[in-house]
């Protein structure tokens, strides 16, 4: 091709590029059968385009079947495909060494195939899937709609009951502040997984009933009620969860007494989940006899239809988790419950300068003192000012560290007081019933304290009598020693009046 013809072709590529918007180099490569960048990259990829397409279809088929392929399995599958290139059988040659794909190969794989998307999915039982429970939810609303349309059922007589379990001392994942050189990706926590269950009930107009707490124990302990909780009830079970006896007790002694007078003879609607203990024969008999309409949620739908999980228990667990975090930050390992006490001391900033002590003992005092000193340092040279500024920054840091230590000491002081209170009451058994109210626990504790006090008084009287008897025998022995020391045995003797008079 002559140079003139080449110049003409370049000119035509340039003009076509201007008119079409396609780069002139691309037009030239296409005209001269040069491979495109994408085709060139395909020849350099770990898998061929066809192999990648097969892998894409395999992943889509798994997703359609409900078992999506984890991203971490892409590299092993790609390695299997490459190994199978040199073998017609399922078992490949173990001596065959094949380079595995790089660690970033999965990201490039689903970037090249836009029909795929990497997502993080939460595992859920198939019975709880939206498509599986759609008919159940529609049937539930049809039934509950007829009940709520009854004019005799008022909103204040519609109740929702649910239970939740709290694992004591178990920390959740959260964002924390660490050193930039800290490479740890986890934090230590206690492995004591003690489950405590709380049963709560709330009406449609926002009125809530007293709580029932279930502890994992066989007998009731006095340390459960170190803080006054009037009206509450405490139960114990081996697992820390509810059972038929506890459900019946809650219906008879918690729900019915607190809602009967308010209902005024009208029917009461109680909504609960489909747990088996809520539908025992004894519970249903009691509900029928007292005009309590027991409506249970359909199976595997509580995560959609149970409002207590989101509206009540979620904030409760969040608040409890914050208390556990604060306690664990100060070194506590076994956590049960602890009241949070906050105090605020008002400060009159107008009178602070007049009462300012010579050595500042608070950050506010230091700031005020620094302002006064700053007015007097105008005549100092730059070196003195720089040294004074360094001293000021060091003092501010010390005050900040002191504030953190004071807060930590305050939390430790409260924990020690809580521990002392529990240890003083002791882990004494005060009852063997499955469920006891707070008032019953207080009465049982008083009776036990009276019995212990009476026993101690009897022991004290017996001890005094023994001491008195020992003191008399000691005096007699000393008198005999004195008579023997003076060699007066032939003339004197110790006379026991009580023994001689008896004789």
From TrEMBL:
UniProt-listed InterPro entries: CenT-Element_Derived (IPR050863), DDE_SF_endonuclease_dom (IPR004875), HTH_CenpB_DNA-bd_dom (IPR006600), RNaseH_sf (IPR036397)
Molecular-function GO term, any one: DNA binding
Keyword Protein biosynthesis: no
Domain HTH CENPB-type as annotated: residue spans: 39-119
Comp. bias regions, Basic and acidic residues: 464-481
Coiled-coil ranges (or none): none
Annotated stretches, region: Disordered: 452-481
One Pfam assignment: DDE_1
GO terms for cellular component: nucleus
Superkingdom in the source lineage: Eukaryota
The keyword DNA-binding is assigned to this record: yes
Keywords of this entry: DNA-binding
Protein name: HTH CENPB-type domain-containing protein
Source organism: Penicillium cosmopolitanum
Classification lineage: Eukaryota, Fungi, Dikarya, Ascomycota, Pezizomycotina
């Amino acid at each position: 091709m002559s140079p003139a013809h080449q110049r003409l072709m370049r000119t035509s590529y340039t003009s076509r590029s201007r008119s079409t918007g396609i780069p002139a180099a691309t037009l030239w490569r296409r005209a001269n059968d040069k491979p495109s960048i994408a085709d060139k990259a395909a020849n350099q990829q770990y898998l061929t385009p066809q192999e990648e397409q097969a892998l894409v279809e395999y992943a889509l088929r798994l997703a359609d079947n409900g078992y999506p392929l984890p991203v971490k399995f892409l590299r092993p599958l790609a390695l299997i495909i490459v190994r199978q290139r040199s073998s017609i059988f399922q078992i490949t040659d173990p001596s065959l060494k094949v380079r595995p794909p790089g660690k970033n190969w999965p990201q490039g794989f689903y970037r090249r195939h836009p029909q795929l998307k990497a997502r993080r999915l939460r595992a859920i039982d198939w019975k709880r899937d939206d498509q599986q429970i759609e008919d159940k939810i529609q049937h539930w609303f049809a039934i509950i709609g007829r009940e709520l349309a009854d004019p005799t059922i008022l909103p204040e007589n519609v109740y929702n009951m649910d239970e939740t379990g709290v694992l004591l001392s178990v920390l959740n994942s959260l964002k924390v502040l660490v050193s930039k050189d800290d490479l740890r990706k986890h934090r230590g926590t206690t492995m004591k997984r003690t489950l405590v269950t709380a049963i709560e009930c709330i009406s449609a107009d926002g009125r809530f009933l007293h709580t029932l707490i279930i502890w994992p124990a066989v007998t009731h302990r006095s340390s459960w009620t170190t803080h006054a909780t009037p009206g509450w009830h405490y139960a114990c079970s081996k697992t820390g969860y509810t059972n038929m006896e506890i459900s019946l007790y809650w219906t008879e002694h918690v729900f019915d007494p607190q809602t009967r007078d308010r209902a005024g003879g009208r029917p009461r609607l109680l909504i609960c989940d489909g747990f088996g203990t809520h539908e025992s024969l004894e519970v249903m008999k009691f509900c029928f006899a007292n005009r309590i309409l027991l409506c249970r949620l359909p199976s595997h739908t509580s995560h959609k239809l149970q409002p207590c999980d989101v509206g009540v228990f979620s904030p409760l667990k969040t608040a409890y988790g914050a208390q556990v975090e604060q306690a664990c930050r100060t070194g506590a390992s076994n956590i049960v419950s602890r009241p949070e006490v906050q105090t605020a001391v008002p400060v009159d900033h107008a009178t602070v300068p007049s009462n300012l002590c010579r050595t500042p003992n608070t950050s506010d005092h230091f700031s005020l003192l620094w302002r006064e000193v700053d007015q007097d340092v105008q005549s100092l040279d730059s070196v003195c000012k720089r040294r004074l500024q360094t001293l000021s920054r060091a003092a501010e840091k010390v005050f900040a560290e002191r504030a953190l230590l004071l807060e930590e000491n305050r939390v430790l002081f409260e924990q020690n007081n809580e521990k002392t209170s529990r240890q003083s009451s002791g882990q004494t058994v005060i009852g063997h019933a499955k469920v006891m109210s707070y008032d019953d626990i207080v009465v049982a504790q008083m009776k036990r304290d009276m019995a212990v006090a009476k026993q101690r008084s009897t022991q004290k009287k017996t001890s005094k009598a023994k001491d008195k008897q020992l003191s008399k025998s000691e005096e007699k022995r000393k008198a005999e020693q004195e008579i023997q020391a003076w060699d007066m045995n032939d003339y004197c003797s110790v006379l026991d009046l009580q023994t001689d008079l008896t004789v």
